[in-house]
Amino acid sequence: MSDDKKSELKIKAIENGTVIDHITANKSLHILKILELPNDETKNVTIAMNVSSSEIGRKDILKIENRELDSSELNQIALIAPKATINIIRDFKPVKKDKIILPNEIKSIIKCTNSKCITNNINEPITPKFKVITKNPPQVRCHYCEKLIKTEDIEKQFE
Ligand SMILES: [Zn+2]
């Protein structure tokens, strides 16, 4: 049996919902923060951290019950876990499998690290907007002040 299959068995199967697999090890809590989960409607979230994976060494897995996350929500995850994959589960069976793709432009999830940037103006805050420069590892550039935000600066914002 492959390592992936074994680790899959360690956490219980869900009847309906979303499984996010191949998350960079120890990043699952960052992802829950991005997705703002768990919340009032989505209570049952199972996390498996730092399990072995034949594909990426060590990984995290997230199982979110009774909620099918849409692709725009999921693609934001690529900022933290560029190799993550998604399974939508219905009646215990995966009905849709997808890779997460970081969009060319992202909004609001992270802040510009330039304190003088217009997006950090306390009086007239503007929604941050970034151009994605590299996808793996992810680096983005602020649309307004052109400040480059490196992978480690992105990750710091979710700690
Ligand atoms: Zn900026």
Q: Strand order, biggest sheet? A: 2-3-1-4-5
Strand content: 35-45%
CATH topology call of the largest domain? Alpha-Beta Plaits
Write down how many β-strands occur, each being a DSSP E stretch of 2 or more residues.
9
The SSE order reads HEHEEHEEEEEEH
Describe the structure.
By secondary structure, the chain is of the alpha+beta class. The chain has two domains: about 15-100, Aspartate carbamoyltransferase regulatory subunit, N-terminal domain (Alpha-Beta Plaits, 2-Layer Sandwich); about 105-155, SH3 type barrels (Roll), CATH 2.30.30. The protein contains four helices and nine strands. It has helices at about 5-10, 30-35, 70-75, 150-155; strands spanning about 15-25, 45-55, 55-65, 85-90, 95-100, 105, 130-135, 140, 150. It is globular, with a radius of gyration of 17 Å. About 25% of the residues are buried. The mean pLDDT is about 85. Involved in allosteric regulation of aspartate carbamoyltransferase. This is Aspartate carbamoyltransferase regulatory chain. It comes from Methanobrevibacter woesei. Keywords: Metal-binding, Pyrimidine biosynthesis, Transferase, Zinc.
